Amino acid sequence: MAAITIEKIEKSFGATPVLRDVSLDIADGEFVTLLGPSGCGKSTLLRILAGLEVQTGGSIAIGERVVDGVRPKRRDVAMVFQSYALYPHMTVQENMAVPLRMRRLSSIQRLPLIGRFLPGTKAVGAEIEKDVMRTAKALGIGHLLGRKPGQLSGGQRQRVAVGRAMVRQPAVFLMDEPLSNLDAKLRVQMRAEIKELHDRLGVTFVYVTHDQSEAMTMSDRVAVMLDGELLQVASPREIYADPDDRRVAEFIGSPKINMLEARVRDNGLAEIAGTSFAIPGDITPGISLALGIRPEAFHLVEAGGDNILTGAVRMIEHMGSDLYVHLAVPGTEHPVIARLLAERAPQIASGQTLHLGVKPERLLLFAADGHRLRPHDHASATVLRMKERVQ
Amino acid sequence: MLAAGSLAGPAFLLLIVLFFLPVFAVFAIALTDWQFGASSLSFVGLANFREVFADESFRASLVNTIVYVAIVVPGTIVLGLAIALLIESGKSFRAFYRAIHFLPYMATLTAMAIAWEALLHPTIGLVNQTLAGLDLPTANWLRDENTVLPVLAVIGIWQNLGFAMVLFLAGLKSIPQDLYDAADIDGADVWLDRLRTVTLPMLGPVTMFVFIVVALKAFETFDTVQVLTQGGPGHASEMLLYTLYRESFEYLRTGYGASVAAVFLLIVVALTLIQARVLDKKVHYQ
């Protein structure tokens, strides 16, 4: 049982900073996903947690114990690697036994030939075999114990890697993109299996991925990372519906959120591409904003007007249950993407002019520096006003 | 069919002319009493082979060769691996260490043998001078039948070390870092455990290759024997290829020499087969 406290972690490779002031508290038994594009430092953070990498600054505690400078072996963590990192010369049984042998047998007992004749080796060996068998059965790989990794399929190897991590019952599971080498179908299946494993074991999971669907479906909380910074840590629902930062809003969600540059006018109105939009909150006129609108926040309306975007259909993507309609709206840089019900398909043709309405509460407002402006969030509005005045 | 034949033909022809015919000729000559330059020969059956195995000096030569190989192969592998590990674990001067350890392999052994001869000279040689300076017993290294074979083996190790080291270095580079990380997490973080859990097994294929190549090279040792000892003192440093050379080209007993060559060939083929069949399966983990 272990909570994890990550405090002000800094890491640079040479002069290149990789992690900047990352702090994160993970509760005991929580499933936290580090999500971000490749190169954002998420794997480095995981490796620092594991003890495979040493941080430049800051501190890590696992279960109340500060583990800075403690070797991976003594941290009570297990890790599943993207490549699985199974020992190719060992059978599945031997692979899974390694962590137990290293912990339960002394270095003399592990010696080849001599070791097995020392007192106790045999008893411990039998115990290890029993534990390996039990874990293998729990994962449904009991019949594979005699095989070598080279003879296994990707999914089976993945399970063996999980088994090797699980067998010694660690307090924390670290997973570094464990599903990215699997095909799409298997990935969905293993996603469910890992989630189930977490529920069953009840230990802390830290999971690294660049795949937002993995992060959204499995996690209790998602930590979105970009350029070595932790942008937001929240539940998948909050991350999607209530992002703190423009970069988070843009990273999460497929198709991508529509970002429209707007200028605030009087009376709580913003102007986008010549149309007035009512915006929530109390924001000083004259400043520039970005309005984020999720594709599914749009609905079709009959005619143009205020709070309505009008444009010509450029492309229609039929996804089965939904339609993604790309709309060229005059005055906007990128096409606006709307997600509409598939039943609308017969009514929409390429080149046709469409009017899209959006409710004010579905608008996400971002300041020019990217941070979120919340409706009735007087603090941020005031800060913004003060900033404006300074300028 | 015609196209296939004409494409494979030249290579097949060369293989026959350059490889199969000479091998066949060796076995054929081994069954005759032909002497080099003689105008006539007669078929003697297996008489040459019987003589070869009854011959005291051939048996000495065979035993010497086996002893030599038994010292050179493990010596080269263990030292080559140790040096590769040391170079790999250090951060600076890697290229320099690689180069100086590889030099002996590049150099002509005949020339190097002369340098060794100077080093091992009983009175003015650096080795004996050093030993004498340290009040240790000296020896006439190349003229003493107890020391000559081990000394030749040491030279053999010295020569092959660079080759083994370079291959081991390449092998070490190809071990995925993930495996070492996994070993760290699993608790195999002491050097001996890392070596046994990851490094040595992952170097299996390279070690196998080094083993076979060095063994073949050791079986073929000729130049150091020719330059330094001529097989002496007595037959103490005589080895297969030297015996073959002496019988065929000094004593001109070509038929007898051919039967020695046949025995030698069988050993080489056997070694290659061991690589192809038995051990390949054990070191490639698929």
From TrEMBL, chain A:
It holds the Pfam family TOBE_2. It comes from Mesorhizobium metallidurans STM 2683. This is sn-glycerol-3-phosphate import ATP-binding protein ugpC. Its EC number is 3.6.3.20. One of its GO terms (biological process) is carbohydrate transport. Keywords: ATP-binding, Hydrolase, Nucleotide-binding, Transport. One of its GO terms (cellular component) is ATP-binding cassette (ABC) transporter complex, substrate-binding subunit-containing. It is found in: Cell inner membrane. It is a peripheral membrane protein.
From TrEMBL, chain B:
This is Binding-protein-dependent transport systems inner membrane component. The chain crosses the membrane at residues 12-31, 66-87, 99-119, 148-170, 200-219, 255-274. Keywords: Cell membrane, Membrane, Transmembrane, Transmembrane helix, Transport. Its main location: membrane. CDD domains: TM_PBP2. The lineage of its organism: Bacteria, Pseudomonadati, Pseudomonadota, Alphaproteobacteria, Hyphomicrobiales. The keyword Transport applies. GO terms for cellular component: plasma membrane. It holds the Pfam family BPD_transp_1.
